[in-house]
Design goal:
The protein is of the alpha/beta class and 297 residues long. It contains twelve helices and twelve strands. Strand 10, helix 7 and strand 11 form a beta-alpha-beta unit. The longest helix has 12 residues. The chain starts with a strand and ends with a helix. The mean pLDDT is 90. This is Spore protein YkvP/CgeB glycosyl transferase-like domain-containing protein.
Length: 297
């Protein structure tokens, strides 16, 4: 099959590259681009909106992927609007049952669940002499309390921050023990992770953030880092499922706990199930695409 997978100029979508790698190995021809050929056999769209009144071009079968839910303000209203406005595709992909349930599609369109995965390059052994104690990888904006936590950690440990940081945030994070790398190339992430002892997951305990997979947490664990995290629905459920005890920021003595723990490494079989090839195989991704094509011949 000729399968189109979109890229975004505004966000990095690791699943797009994972799809390309996985599907090419199975013999498919992949178009990975910002604009998709409307005459592909199948085009997958990361939603967004694709209004039902927009005239269809070409013959490509459409699959809509919902990686996340709408964010505040008026998150539920935005979710409802997506449901009403978006055209009916031939198939849908949802991050998980929570996303599927809250979007509440009531039609008979076939679907699968596909969780987030980890790039092969991130399954590695950490450095015996890391440059940093703690890495935070992700956005700073919209995460109230994060800057205070990073500064508190910097009182005892060397902290590195990876991701978009505004001038104001940079000034607030100015500290002799905080290194700000900003946005980096994806290929450079494994080495930065390898040179850290712990990874920090700081996710607002607000809908919908608190029910969505923390990709960075998966990446930290794959790289052999210990994890420091706040408590919220997804994190408590996830760590319970893999039988792992992180350092909880909610604990009064979390700074002392970090020092006592050193580094807690998750057994590889548990975290290897989140390798992209396993995520896509377990979700029967290729089977799903073939069935959608057969139903629309």
């Amino acid at each position: 099959m000729n399968i189109g997978i979109p890229l975004s100029k505004f966000a990095y979508t690791p699943e797009a590259y994972a799809y390309e790698k996985y599907l090419k190995k199975l013999g498919h021809q992949i178009q990975l681009d910002y604009e998709l050929d409307p005459d592909n056999d199948i085009n997958i769209y990361f939603m967004g909106t694709r209004p039902f009144w927009k005239k269809k071009e070409g013959r490509a079968i459409e699959i809509h992927e919902y990686q996340s839910l709408s964010t505040p303000p008026h998150a539920h209203l935005k979710n409802f609007a997506k449901k009403i406005v978006n055209k009916k595709p031939s198939g849908r992909i949802f991050l998980n049952n929570f996303v599927h349930h809250d979007l509440n599609f009531t039609d008979d369109v076939p679907y699968i669940y596909r969780d987030m995965g980890v790039d092969d390059a991130l399954f590695q052994s950490p450095s015996e002499n890391p440059l940093y104690d703690i890495i935070y990888c992700g956005s700073i904006a919209g995460r109230n309390g994060l800057i205070e936590v990073l500064r508190r950690l910097a009182g005892n440990y060397k902290v590195v921050v990876v991701g978009q940081v505004s001038d104001l945030e940079s000034s607030l994070l100015k500290h002799e023990n905080i290194t700000i790398l900003g946005r980096v190339e994806r290929k450079d992430l494994p080495e930065i992770y390898r040179n850290s002892r712990f990874g920090l997951n700081f996710t607002p305990d607000l809908y919908p953030y608190n029910i969505q997979t923390s990709t960075k947490t998966l990446e930290y664990l794959a790289s052999g880092l210990g994890v420091i995290s706040n408590k919220y629905k997804w994190s408590e459920q996830f760590f319970n499922e893999i039988d792992y005890q992180p350092v909880w920021l909610d604990d009064f003595d979390f700074l002392k706990t970090i020092e006592m723990n050193g580094r807690l490494i998750v057994s590889l079989p548990l975290i290897h199930r989140y390798a992209w090839k396993n995520i896509l195989s377990d979700s029967k991704f290729d089977v799903f695409l073939r069935e959608i094509q057969n139903e629309n011949v």
